[in-house]
Automatic annotation (TrEMBL):
The enzyme's E.C. designation: 4.1.1.20
UniProt source species: Fructilactobacillus sanfranciscensis (strain TMW 1.1304) (Lactobacillus sanfranciscensis)
Family: Belongs to the Orn/Lys/Arg decarboxylase class-II family. LysA subfamily.
Cofactor: pyridoxal 5'-phosphate
Protein name: Diaminopimelate decarboxylase
Length: 431
């Protein structure tokens, strides 16, 4: 627990007692300390300014998006990448500036592309040949033009969980560099009358701790720039290096600061472009986890427990894999505190179980916590990325409420789902 405040042994989030938030809004509750979102965006922006490099800090919506989040991002002059019509729709409804949107995805539908074109999004990041054909038709029909980038797969295997690696050669995303696909698509897109090619994109994975992958990625992108310039007379004005900067979940994690990854990328870029006598492109980044993750805390109420002598003590909470699938899906580890009793000498080893009907629904296996009693509020830390955004209604449990806090003030960002919400699309059969 690094940066949460503790007062009189009670956890505070954004200047408010966590237990007060739990009492006011109920649990399970997803809380965001918005000042942390803002300060991480500022830290990224500062690195670019210090290096005097044109930039965009484009938040990866998939980590967590809602209208309130897009409002905060817009205030901080961040861009946002969206990967679906749903994320785009939410950004539109939030009044987010469409010229700051990048549209990603490996199978965008014609309807999604039409929506992007109609709303004049800033850039569409092209992922495959089929999409180019679809977009070309959409643009011709509507007599519109749009900025595009090419997503290449740079064949860098970042050291992270296999499911969240994306830049290796055998990947479903982007155009392959090694087999010449990237050159082929470049030539094709340069001929497209309604597409304006502004740059190249790659993303090597998520929750990455080592800087090496980003260094190699940057080197490869600069090499590609040179090759495209020499052989096709095309010089990208933007390189988008994706996201993936790892964060600390538990004391076992020792990542460098997210902005330090960016510094490493910029140092490599300056060196590589200078030594090849190439102009310095603008650099875009797409961090999701590092902006949303540390800002989020999930509050649960402790309920039943089961003690199997000599084996394990389980304490169950009023949430679990429906609001945070990451432990079950990736074996992800989290840290937690008891919000109403942060530091206590009377500790025991417990396993925090969810309430879902699945044995794998364990939020934290074997954590030392003050002895828990029913009604205690357990705060699982750094849950802001890929928690609520991957939430489900498994077992027909409503999804939690989301609250934004800042400077002692809390506001609901997403209401708690009701039972009525759960069935609002259901239809009774005529039988
Ligand atoms: N840009 C692209 C093209 C991406 O595919 C991703 C993440 C990002 C940016 C943001 O990466 P970040 O900075 O958040 O690491 N559900 C998984 C993570 C999947 C990441 C997918 N792509 C998890 O819970 O760990």
């Amino acid at each position: 627990m690094d940066s949460n405040e503790v007062q009189d042994n009670q956890l505070m989030i954004g200047g408010i007692l966590a237990t007060d938030l739990a009492a006011q809004y109920g649990t399970a509750l997803q809380v965001y300390d918005i000042s942390k979102v803002r300060s991480q965006i500022h830290a990224f922006q500062r690195v670019f300014r210090e290096n005097d490099i044109d930039y965009a800090v484009s938040y990866a919506s998939k980590a967590f998006a809602c209208i309130a989040m897009y409002q905060v991002l817009a205030q901080e002059n961040a861009h946002a990448d969206v990967v679906s019509g749903g994320e785009l729709y939410t950004a539109i409804k939030a009044g987010f500036p469409m010229d700051h949107i990048s549209f990603h995805g490996n199978n965008k539908s014609r309807e999604e592309l039409e929506m992007a074109v109609d709303n004049h999004v800033g850039v569409i990041i092209l992922d495959n040949f089929y999409e180019i054909q679809l977009l070309s038709e959409v643009l011709a029909t509507k007599n519109e033009t749009i900025d595009v980038m090419l997503r290449v797969s740079p064949a860098v295997s970042a050291h992270t969980h296999e499911f969240i690696q994306t830049g290796q050669q055998d990947s479903k995303f982007g155009f392959d560099i090694l087999t010449g696909q990237a050159d082929e698509v470049l030539q094709q897109v340069l001929k497209e009358p309604n597409m304006n090619l502004v740059g190249v994109h790659s993303h090597i994975g998520s929750q990455i701790f080592e800087t090496d992958g980003f260094k190699i990625e940057t080197e490869k992108l600069v090499k590609l720039m040179q090759h495209w310039n020499d052989d096709f007379g095309y010089m990208p004005s933007i390189i988008n290096v994706g996201g993936g900067f790892g964060i600390k979940y538990t004391d076992a994690d020792h990542p460098i600061r997210p902005e330090d990854f960016v510094q490493q990328i910029l140092t490599t870029l300056r060196h590589e472009t200078e030594s090849r006598n190439l102009p310095l492109p603008a650099v875009w980044i797409e961090p999701g986890r590092s902006i949303a993750g540390p800002a989020g805390t999930t509050l649960y109420t402790a309920g039943s427990s089961k003690d199997i002598p000599e084996i394990r003590k389980y304490v169950a909470v009023d949430g679990g894999m429906g609001d945070n699938i990451r432990p079950a899906l990736y074996g992800a580890d989290y840290d937690a505190v008891v919000a109403n009793d942060v530091h206590d000498d009377n500790v025991e080893l417990v396993t925090i179980a969810g309430k879902y009907c699945e044995s794998g629904d364990i939020l934290i296996k074997d954590i030392e916590l003050p002895v828990l009693h029913p009604g205690d509020v357990i705060a699982v830390l750094a849950t802001g990325a890929y928690g609520y955004s991957m939430a489900s209604n498994y077992n027909l449990n409503p999804r939690p409420a989301v609250v934004f806090v800042e400077n002692g003030k809390s506001q609901i960002a997403i209401e708690r789902e009701t039972y009525a919400d759960l069935i609002h699309l259901d239809k009774k059969l005529d039988i």
